[in-house]
Amino acid sequence: MGPIFANVRSATALAILLLTASTGVRAEDLPIVGTGDGIEMLQAVADSYNAEHGQARVSVPPSIGSGGAVASVGGERQKLGRVARPLTETEKAQGLVEVPLIRIPSAIFVHRGVGVATLTSAQVAAVFSGGIDNWSALGGPDLKIRVVRREETDSTLSVLRATMPGWRDLVLTSRSKTATTTQDAIATVRDTPGAIGFGPFSPNLASDFTVLSIDGRVPRDPGYPSAVTLALIYKTATRDAEASAFLAFATSDRAGQLMAERGGAPLKP
């Protein structure tokens, strides 16, 4: 019976090896799941870590939202997550811990064909509420404004409501498209003439769209009010040496520099 069991074990090991090779998944992979905010920044940090440190290959998969990170890490399906909102007291009571990394300014951006680069906060509120529905009223072309919004739980929308003048109780126009992720919002504004949307600021965003100046300030100006804080989360029960090593690197000066080069702002002005 011994040789038979040995052969079974060998066949099983070979099957696992072949499956791993065919799917590109390695046992030592360490995915950081969650929000789309700051994904380019965290990817740069992961790339640098992979080149310089450790055995685990850190990856930054497409967005599943901050809530997805909380569910995955809280449910012990993943070791680390990325969020753009504070943990609730209930989530903390479940053993989740957040590690703030950097501030990401919120940006309001428009399709290149709009021809408008600066608005007041009152004008922005009027656009997103539907009170102004044509760019000609704002110095642009005779072009219908297409509003791209996010769901109410979105981190950028939450920050806009908390900080941007006129947004706390703003009722967003029903004549709008709801994007489910940051990537979806960006793609929709890019592909829709007359579109306006919002999301986390990055230099790449500024190269593809017109990022609006609001009340004379651009997103990275000290007086610009709206920003989210990008943080990593882990669960105390599942934090291991690999997760701890990446957390240490992600909070280092080197990682901070990488994120700042991609549009991040220090946690303390």
UniProtKB/TrEMBL annotation:
Residues 1-27 form the signal peptide. InterPro entries: PBP_domain (IPR024370), Phosphate_ABC_transporter (IPR050811). This is Phosphate ABC transporter substrate-binding protein, PhoT family. Residues 28-254 form the PBP domain. The keyword Transport does not apply. Gene3D superfamilies: Periplasmic binding protein-like II. Keywords: Signal. Coiled coil: none annotated. It comes from the Bacteria.
